[in-house]
Design goal:
254 residues, alpha/beta, 5-stranded parallel beta sheet, two-stranded antiparallel ribbon, 17% strand, binds zinc ion
Length: 254
């Protein structure tokens, strides 16, 4: 069954649907239709090419990944939202919408993530740091400061000289505040393109001793020119956004 969202989150969800339900699209989880990790369209495979590469690496990556919506590059409103909210002057509408989506993910379906992780008593959260503009406060982190999150923050920072930031390289991140014991951390990012950036941060957390890591991103970005995406975008991405659909399962809440 889908989770009944807490009343406070339901009000936020209703607002998201009324303002953006027409252009936001839930991510879809279907075996061999979409990647078992990142929900990108796949042509009959278990995982997409980047996620297959991560799975076969020696690094321990996230135990589960969820994105709330798809964002088709470069002209879609969803894409403009997940890119535009971190511009220098994004305006309140983009920031508010991002904040609302984060609330749906964390407060509406955070319990689903905890359940999938085995309901550990000790939970923390972390933000995937930006490696682009370390000189200014990270807009995603600023938005998250106003939202309820599970447990305490585990601060990650980009290492001084990150290399190949799109590849799986846990050494690109430093775990600044490693807690002595954290069975589960939810790692948050705004968008997922190929996943190397977020998975590197997840692998860094695992190297620091975190037992179980979930990655939650607002949007799974899709390239409309990539052949497997073309039909999928045309045929499957209709309909309105439904905040009660679980981003972790693509259907009912666990
Ligand atoms: Zn994938
Ligand atoms: Zn759920």
């Amino acid at each position: 069954m889908t989770r009944v969202l807490p009343p406070r989150v339901q009000r936020v969800a209703d607002l998201v649907v009324s303002q953006a339900g027409g252009y936001l699209r839930n991510t879809i989880r279907e075996h061999r239709v979409t990647c078992a990790v990142c929900a990108a369209p796949v042509d009959g495979y278990e995982r997409c090419i980047p996620c297959s590469g991560h799975a076969s690496s020696a690094h321990r990556t996230a135990d589960r990944v969820a994105s709330l919506v798809y964002a088709v590059e470069y002209d879609s409103q969803a894409y403009k939202l997940v890119r535009g909210y971190k511009a220098d002057n994004p305006g309140p509408s983009l920031s508010d919408m991002m904040s609302s989506l984060l609330a749906i993910g964390l407060q509406g379906h955070g319990a689903c993530d905890a359940k999938l992780a085995g309901n550990p008593a000790d939970i923390g959260w972390a933000v995937v740091p930006s490696t682009r503009r370390p000189d200014r406060p990270q807009p995603l982190r600023v938005l998250l400061q106003a939202l309820a999150k599970p447990g305490h923050e585990i601060v990650l920072a980009p290492s001084p000289n990150p290399v190949s930031v799109r590849e799986l390289r846990p050494e690109n991140f430093l775990v600044v505040t490693p807690p002595p014991y954290r069975p589960h951390v939810i790692l948050i990012d705004d968008s997922w393109v190929r996943g190397g950036h977020a998975q590197s941060a997840a692998a860094a957390l695992k190297l620091a001793g975190v037992a179980d890591v979930s990655i939650l991103t607002v949007a799974r970005v899709l390239n409309p020119d990539w052949a497997p995406n073309v039909e999928f975008i045309r045929v499957r991405l209709g309909g309105w956004y439904d905040p009660s659909i679980c981003p972790w399962t693509g259907g009912a809440c666990p």
